[in-house]
Write a structure and sequence with these properties.
It is built from 6 helices and 8 strands. It is α+β, with helices and mostly antiparallel strands and about 250 residues long. A 4-stranded mixed beta sheet has the order 3-2-1-8, covered by helices on one side. Strand 6 (about 135-140) and strand 7 (about 150-155) form a beta hairpin. The chain is globular.
Length: about 250
């Protein structure tokens, strides 16, 4: 997903031209360093129900002293003319409050704030799954005579807009691509090699130094340490926006 967002316009829509551009992005990335990574492992939530009360180490097949990470947040940098200085923050985890895959592009605050710090940053969001959607989260004036501002969105939710169209799941699309001989959505060997070049030093460091992951409760949004890392590189999370399911 990072490569698809950061790549330049390909020469054509042929699979090789698209994958060439993805490889160019990876070649502009340096190996991830340990000071720009947050690692966690979930523990049981006493206030939860059922499996939420059990931590990773309490799984029957897991050693009681396991340091296996179940959450990671990493900052990546693409050192090219377009993206130099722009942080790409990758996050993934198990036992969080939501199961989703999305791309979230946060716009920087406008210099010379005339609203007294009341505006949150605008964001363009592409939700890959579940329930594919594209929406723009932004600050708008409250309707009516009120001159205040609040966070709202312009939303394109596929399952509502295209109710009568069959939207295949991700793996259904990949299986179809196999039958059609379309390699566009598959990783090429040189792309895989460059990805391993970026991540392998970090993985070796984690394995060699037996790093203790930060514990987090089953069902939380993420780790505060991850928010602090993102804040350090320029991303701001306010926690004030609440997604409202649209009804058409």
């Amino acid at each position: 997903l990072l490569c698809l967002i950061a790549m330049e316009k390909p020469a054509s829509i042929s699979p090789d031209d698209i994958r060439d551009e993805k490889v160019k992005v990876l070649k502009c990335m340096q190996p991830i360093t340990t000071d720009e990574v947050v690692l966690g492992q979930y523990v049981g939530n006493p206030e939860g129900e059922g499996e939420q009360r059990l931590g990773f180490r309490e799984d029957p097949g897991c050693p009681p002293d396991s340091r296996q990470c179940t959450y990671a947040s990493a900052v990546c940098w693409v050192r090219n003319e377009r993206w130099d200085g722009v942080p790409f923050i990758l996050k993934c985890g198990k036992a969080l409050n939501e199961r989703k895959a999305e791309i979230r592009i946060q716009f920087r605050a406008v210099p010379g704030d005339i609203f007294g710090g009341r505006c949150e940053r605008n964001e363009f969001v592409i939700r890959v799954q579940p329930k594919e959607a594209v929406y723009m989260k932004m600050m708008v004036k409250r309707p009516g005579r009120d001159t205040g501002m609040f966070e709202s969105e312009m939303d394109l939710s596929y399952h509502l807009r295209y109710k009568h169209i069959n939207l295949p799941d991700a793996y259904e699309k990949l299986i179809q691509d196999v039958f059609l001989g379309n390699q566009m959505n598959f990783v090429r060997s040189d792309e895989l090699a460059e990805a391993w070049r970026v991540f392998t030093p970090l993985l070796h460091h984690i394995e060699g130094h037996d790093i203790e992951p930060i514990p987090y409760k089953f069902g939380v949004r993420g780790l505060p340490e991850a928010d602090e890392l993102a804040e350090k590189v320029g991303h701001h999370y306010s926690g004030t926006y609440k997604w409202t399911t649209p009804h058409l």
